[in-house]
Amino acid sequence: MQLTLPSGFGPDSAAILNEFKRKHPHVRFLRFQWQDYSGVLRGRVMLIDTVIAQIAKGTPLKATGLAICCSVTNNLAPFTPLDGQYWLVPNWPTLHSTASKTNASVMCALDYTLPGSPASRDFCPRHVLNKVLDQARAGWGLDFLVGFEVEFVVMKLNQETGIIDRCSEGWGLFSISGLRDPVYHYVEECVMKLEQLGVDIQAIHTEGQRGQYEFALGPKPPMEAVDQLVLVHSYLKDIFAQNGYIVTMMPKPVASESLATGQHTHLSLQPPRPDLEESFLAGILQRLPELCSFCLPQDISYQRLLPFIGGCDSVCWGTEARKSPIRKIEPSRWEIRNIDAMSNMYLTLGAIIGAGLCGLAGHEPLLWPDIMDPANQDVSFGEPLPKDVKTAISILEQDQFGLADVLGRPILDRYVAMKQFELSKLSELDTEKVRQLFIELF
């Protein structure tokens, strides 16, 4: 089958890789990476010289027909194509060395082809985020900045029990004693290496318990912000793994403890638009129950949600309201709190921003009052948010408020199908086995 070379393979691609080889002579392998619908980072590894040779021949690089068809339980979904193929579309600005001296990585989008049909970008989360951002620019002249709070817990495999458990005991919550933990120097090692790669880490502190930490990442445009997030997660996991530990960002790693891990996400309109912010926020709030299917993609995600800690369980917002799912920080800037690191953040950001664009397109009024305004202290909260992912997926499938008009029906239907299939497979597993699987994957 003949295929036009994907857009990631322009005439400068070989030059970019040759220059990278010159600066990093020890790198022999290149990881082409993408995130699937379950938020799992997947990839294909090639020798960097082989990649350069294929580009010189004008040969596109295959991902696999299974690229985003595998559930978190490692089962192929019913919609897995028998004759379709996904192709790698690398974003070369994300080309970086990894924690392994012989490896580099690059984040990719995915083009999809069927024999006799043109390439499609409808199923790729990265392409869909780009599509939503293009709509925002074309329709309203809007860009965005996104900043993530990276929370993680350091854990260790108990060789006797085979259980992954916390490696430290004691206080967190900004305590300096938590910085005296023996594992903390690996945190500093990661920060220094990430700084060399251009990652903007603005602050570090101990989180709820000893061995739990948070990085505040500086704001970037949405695509760059998610690429940076993936890089930070990978470096943390790789550096600690090299030293016998496991870093996890999953929301509830120990069932018997209050320890919880989120991924609060800061989103601002660029430039700030007081004339648009109410309808943009209204669009998100109107669709918040279905957005939970992206932001909180597993049942274990909902175990984290408690008032104050993770965001309340109703549709609402408030100025500096840490007990609400959406906290307004300043004009045209919000923090999304009901979200965790099991999400595919390309797709999740696309859905959140897309919901805001729906609000703009419909001139939707902001019907939900600021819960922090004393004048609203007796006003009831909005409708309850879903208590589990099955309910959230059912609301998304109905799509009462037209989110598919922005994201595209193909990816919404594909995502719903994957989550429904995944739920059926997870239901066959022991609850603690699922928790251990998620600790390792996320």
UniProtKB/TrEMBL annotation:
GO biological process entries: glutamine biosynthetic process
Family annotation (InterPro entries): Gln_synt_N_sf (IPR036651), Gln_synth/guanido_kin_cat_dom (IPR014746), Gln_synth_cat_dom (IPR008146)
Organism expressing this protein natively: Penicillium citrinum
Family (UniProt): Belongs to the glutamine synthetase family.
Listed name of the protein: Glutamine synthetase
Domain GS catalytic: 125-442
Example of a GO MF term: glutamine synthetase activity
The keyword Ligase is annotated on this UniProt entry: yes
Pfam families: Gln-synt_C
Keywords on record: Ligase
